[in-house]
Amino acid sequence: MASLDRVKVLVLGDSGVGKSSLVHLLCQNQVLGNPSWTVGCSVDVRVHDYKEGTPEEKTYYIELWDVGGSVGSASSVKSTRAVFYNSVNGIILVHDLTNKKSSQNLYRWSLEALNRDLAPTGVLVTNGDYDREQFADNQIPLLVIGTKLDQIHETKRHEVLTRIAFLAEDFNAEEINLDCTNPRYLAAGSSNAVKLSRFFDKVVEKRYFLRESNQIAGFPDRKRFGGGTFKSLHYD
Amino acid sequence: MSFLIDSSIMITSQVLFFGFGWLFFMRQLFKDYEVRQYVVQVIFSVTFAFSCTMFELIIFEILGVLNSSSRYFHWKMNLCVILLILVFMVPFYIGYFIVSNIRLLHKQRLLFSCLLWLTFMYFFWKLGDPFPILSPKHGILSIEQLISRVGVIGVTLMALLSGFGAVNCPYTYMSYFLRNVTDADILALERRLLQTMDMIISKKKRMAMARRTMFQKGEVHNKPSRFWGMIKSVATSAPGSENLTLIQQEVDALEELSRQLFLETADLYATKERIEYSKTFKGKYFNFLGYFFSIYCVWKIFMATINIVFDRVGKTDPVTRGIEITVNYLGIQFDVKFWSQHISFILVGIIIVTSIRGLLITLTKFFYAISSSKSSNVIVLLLAQIMGMYFVSSVLLIRMSMPLEYRTIITEVLGELQFNFYHRWFDVIFLVSALSSILFLYLAHKQAPEKHMAP
C-alpha cells in the first residue's frame, strides 16, 4: 500500500498563525491539543482520492511539509530552509485573520519558496518586492488559508474578508477561512472541503497529468474581471 | 523666568527622545509583528525618554548648562517618574499581559495581575535585606529605598552583560576561533536531513493508510476511553492501534533527530557566512579589533580581581588622574579646570553613547531570538524594564568616572547610598560572569567539531 504515488505540498506562514494545527487537522481529522513551536520542518501525510466519485478515481499520498520560522530570520536559517523547497508541487499559504502583518508577509513567503524553482525559466527576480508578473507566470498551485476565524468579531468580519479576497486574487488562488480548533469547518460536503479537494486535485493534475503543456513562459496571464467565478463572501 | 526656559528645553528634549524610542520600536523591534496594544509601545518609549533625559542632565551638569536649581529640580522629578514606571507600571503590565495569554485566567485578568504585582513587590523588597546598601534611617517609601534596590538589580545586569560581552566580543571578532566548514560538510548534513525526513514520511504514510483502513472498517481509532470500546478491543484484539503507537514512538524519535540536524545545518551556514565575511576588508578590520579587545578583556578581569582581593576602590576618576600624571611627570602645564571639564564631557559622553547603543543592539538581538507573536508584548515590556534599570544603575556607576565637583549633584539627588558597595558588587559579578562565559564558550567550542565527526 506504500506504493501509491506522492505529491509534495508546502505549508508556509508566519510563526504562530496555526500551521501545525491546520496540518494536524487536515491529516488526522483531529484538533491538535498542545501546539508548540515548530523547529525546522514537520511533515504529515494525507491520503487523498483524486477525482473522487468518478471512474478515474485514484488514491494519492499528499505530503504536507510544515516549515517553521519567520520571514525575517537570519540568512543562515533561510538557506537551511531552502533545502525543503525542492520539487514542490503545491503551496498552502497560511495567515492569521486577526493579524494583518501575517497576511502581508505572505508575499515574502511565496517569493522565498518560488524563487527556488523559478531560476531555470529566467524570469527577472526583483529584490523581494512583490511583483505580480512573477505570480502570473507561476505554475505551482497556491491556496490561501486564513485561521482564527472565531476570534474575529461579527462586526469586523466583512472588512476582513474583503481584504482577504483581494489577497487571494493577487496570488491567483482560492481562499479558505476557518478555525483550526473546530473540525466542522472542513466537514465533508462543506464548501471549504470542496475547495480543498479541488486544490489537491489541481496539484495532482499538474504533477502527473499536465507535464507537457504550459511550459511556454512569456505571456503573463492578465487578470480577467468577470471571467470565471465571481467571489462571494459566504462562509458556512 | 529662567526656570521656565530651562523646563521648556528639558521638555522638548524629552519629546525628542520619546519620538526616537517610538521609531526604534516600530522600525526595529516590531518590524515583523503587528502592534495591537499601543500601551506597550507608549511604555517603552516613555521609559527610553526618561532614561535618556537622565544622561542628558549629567552632560548638562558637566557643561554647566542651565540653572543649577532647575537642574536639581529636574533630576528629582526625573528620578521619581522613572522609579514610578520601573516599580509600579511596567511590572503591573507585564503581569497583566502574562495573565491574558493564559486562557483559563482570562476572565479575572485584573485580579490576577494585581496578585502578580504584589508578589513582585514582596520579592523586590526582600532583595534589599542581604545587602548593606543604606543606613536604616529612611522611611519605607523614600527614593533611597527604591533606588537602592533598583540599583542592585541594574548593576547585576550591567555586570553580567559586561562580563559576557567582554569575553564574547573577541570570540566573535577573531577568525582564529572559526571552525573550518566546507561546502561538502553542509551538503552531507543536508542529505542526512532529507533522508531523515523521508524516513519520517514513509512511517507516516503507513500510519495514515492504517488509520484509513480502520476508519473504513468502522472502528473507533481514538484511545478507547469508553467502557464498551475497551471491552471490544480486548475481545477483537485490534492490532492496528498497537502498531500505531509503536510507529508513533519511532516517528517521535526521528522528528527529534530532524530538529537537531536542522539546527546544526543552520549553524554550519552561519559559520560559513562568517568565514566569507572575515575575508573581506571589514572582516579583517574586525579581526584586528578582536585582538585589541581580547587584551582589554584580560586587563579588565585582572583589574577586577585586584580590586576584590586588595579591597580597593578607586578614589579619583581617570580624568583627574590622567591630568595629574601629565602635569606632574611629563611637566606639561595647562589649564586644569578647563581641560578637565571638556575631557570628562567627552569621556562621559562616549561612555553614555556606547552603552545606549550597545544595549539597544543587544536587546534587539535578544528580542528576535526569543519572541513569538504571542509573547512579543511581554518580552518587550521585560526589555523596557531591563533598559530602565540598566540606565539607572549606569548613572550610579558613572559617578566614578567624573571629577569631584560634578559628582555632587548625583550624591545630592540619590541620597546616602553606599556607592562603594555598588562598585564592589559590579566587580564581583563581572568576574563571575566573565569566567563563566569563558568556560561556557570553551565547552561549546570543543563540543561542536565532534558532532560533525559522527558518520
From TrEMBL, chain A:
Keywords: GTP-binding, Nucleotide-binding. It comes from Loxodonta africana. Homodimer. Interacts with GPR89; the interaction stabilizes GPR89. Interacts with RAP1GDS1. This is Rab-like protein 3. Belongs to the small GTPase superfamily. Rab family. Signal peptide: none annotated. It comes from the Eukaryota. The lineage of its organism: Eukaryota, Metazoa, Chordata, Craniata, Vertebrata. Required for KRAS signaling regulation and modulation of cell proliferation. Regulator of KRAS prenylation, and probably prenylation of other small GTPases. Required for lymphocyte development and function. Not required for myeloid cell development.
UniProtKB/TrEMBL annotation, chain B:
Signal peptide: none annotated. GO terms for cellular component: Golgi cisterna membrane. GO terms for biological process: intracellular pH reduction; skin development; T cell differentiation. GO terms for molecular function: voltage-gated monoatomic anion channel activity. InterPro entries: ABA_GPCR_dom, Golgi_pH-regulator_cons_dom, GPHR/GTG. Residues 142-207 form the Golgi pH regulator conserved domain. It is found in: Membrane. It is a multi-pass membrane protein. Residues 277-446 form the Abscisic acid G-protein coupled receptor-like domain. It holds the Pfam family ABA_GPCR. The chain crosses the membrane at residues 6-26, 38-63, 75-98, 110-127, 147-169, 288-310, 343-368, 380-402, 422-443. Keywords: Membrane, Transmembrane, Transmembrane helix. It catalyses: bromide(in) = bromide(out); iodide(out) = iodide(in); fluoride(in) = fluoride(out). Belongs to the Golgi pH regulator (TC 1.A.38) family. PANTHER family: G-PROTEIN COUPLED RECEPTOR 89-RELATED, GOLGI PH REGULATOR A-RELATED. This is G protein-coupled receptor 89B. It comes from Loxodonta africana.
